[in-house]
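ENTRY TYPE: paired fold submission
RECORD: A
CONTENT: sequence, then structure tokens
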Amino acid sequence: PDKCLNLGFQTFHCVFSFGEILGLEIRPVQEDKYPAIPSSSLQSCVGIHRKTMKYILVVAFLGAAVAFPINDADDDKIVGGYTCSKNSLPYQASLNIGYHFCGGALINSRWVVSAAHCYKSSIQVRLGEHNLAVNEGTEQYINSAKVIRHPSYSSSTLNNDIMLIKLASAATLNSYVNTIALPTSCVATGTQCLISGWGNTLSSGTNYPDLLQCLKAPVLSSSQCSRAYPGQITSNMICIGYLEGGKDSCQGDSGGPVACNGVLQGIVSWGIGCAQKGYPGVYTKVCNYVSWIQNTIAAN
């Protein structure tokens, strides 16, 4: 069978194609679970770009499939974007476990929203960052007090891919560290949005930037999204990007914010490859979760 393997810095992005022989679809998984393998064929090489694969699938002679973990979660970055103006996105967070592994967005002084597939029981949230390699004097490093995944999150489908992080102490809000508003309505098709993160900048190969990257991209229609990913898009997902390819989020951007008209409308979630023609990025549709966010914050 064909095999597609991309090993990136801080990221083991693993994709396999078994074509018509086995008709296997490799889905993103949590680190403590084996990948779900539905017996329905999909694209020849499935690259989970916001959510990275963490298992190698070995196919034995008798058709048995065995999964072996190859690395912990590391996610996505921006392909085809540009370096953001320094400290222009004060809501941007870097989730850190000794290294940057996911993004997030500060929604009030004590809470950050990210993707559920970025879950770790303990996370250091880094705010006020621009250059990850340099202490610029604007940063605030705050440990998590609680990390709460959506109760209906599915690691096999990535439905409800949203998570809240309560900070152990309140962030000091200033021009470098500030919040982004939650939506009061869902975003319209065609709206230009701003995606940001420190993920991989290459659609083929790896280059993880120190400087925060930005990308402006349009919201696609639900029909365009469903045609790109038949049978995989739920009502809690939204596609943002370019069907012609070339611009996208990628490994290392997971959990990061999508701001539309200054409001948090998306969370970097998943996709096939990075910036591949016909496969736009898929994002958690934040407008569906405002009540859950508010209720969870009130209860914790």
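RECORD: B
CONTENT: sequence, then structure tokens
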Amino acid sequence: MQKSKTQVIEDDYSAIFNASLAVINGQGFTVNHSNELTGTIEAVYRFTRNSSILGDLFEGYNPRAAVAIHIIARLTRVDDATSLLELDLLEEMPEVPESSYSIRSGEPILRPVRDTKHYDDLFADIRANLR
């Protein structure tokens, strides 16, 4: 199961961070947290009735009951001109209805997005944004 994907990107750390933030915002995500010092970005994309017509990364995505996609991006500086960018994409499923059979009732369920196409598209967009 896909948990995260990492790529080496050769460019200035700040430029990579800003490009990542711009791409995540541009894809329709709402950024909940970003910190350039720690290299972290956390954002969420909530599906709505109009999600499929936005023309963004998740156009045509059929999550079969997912209510949102979460992204966690972590940037690690290797040297002055190279950094590692790690992405986690997680599907959020609706809260489990309360029942005597469910231990996790009332909690949303997060599971990794398995289609690597979404990771590849994000990395390609970030690299393109650096040019």
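NOTES ON RECORD B: Strands lie at 5-10, 30-35, 40-46, 68-79, 82-93, 109-112. The two ends are 32 Å apart (CA to CA).
STATUS: closed
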